[in-house]
Please model this.
Amino acid sequence: MKLKKTLLTGFICIVSIMGSYAQEHLMFKDIALNGDIKSFANELVKQGFVIVEPKATIIALSGNFVNRKCEVFVCSTKKSNNVWKVAVYLPKEFNWQSIKKDYQSLKEQFIKKYGNGKAQEYFTLPYFEGDEYEMQAINLEKCHYQIYWQTKEGSISLTISKYGQIMISYEDAINTLLDDKEKAEEIKKDI
Model:
């Protein structure tokens, strides 16, 4: 009897330890970045998003995210069609002060949830903040404002894009590796 209790206790400990090492998927709007792209998009539709352009490995949707009307792109692996990335583009900005204010505000919210990320925030010469050419610098990719967070589930980034939009990207760790593997297999097959 004592041996059975010891074995049972040992088994429970092993299962608990294995469970703690099991990796989860990154979440977007409480939906795991995993599974079929159409199923994932349909979950977003249930939350009020509208499919704008469905393609095999990228589905574009529109809807509300962080209290703004935005465009959402769901990306899947080519072979297994498994979701690995979601990219959100907020509305285009035409003024440096507005886009910087939005970026800083969102950055603070993400820091509250994910902690301090790794940031790069600078202009490349000849541009600098305060020269009144910040939007031109953005369009020419001379403005580098990005912060990202690496979690065990994947990575999240907040960026001022060259299109004058704030982009928020979610990349699942497990399925990013799957996407890389599928791309490598395709290249190997081609060569």
About this structure: Residues 3-22 have pLDDT under 50 and may be disordered. The radius of gyration is 21 Å. The longest strand covers residues 68-76. Helices lie at 2-21, 37-46, 96-114, 134-139, 173-190.
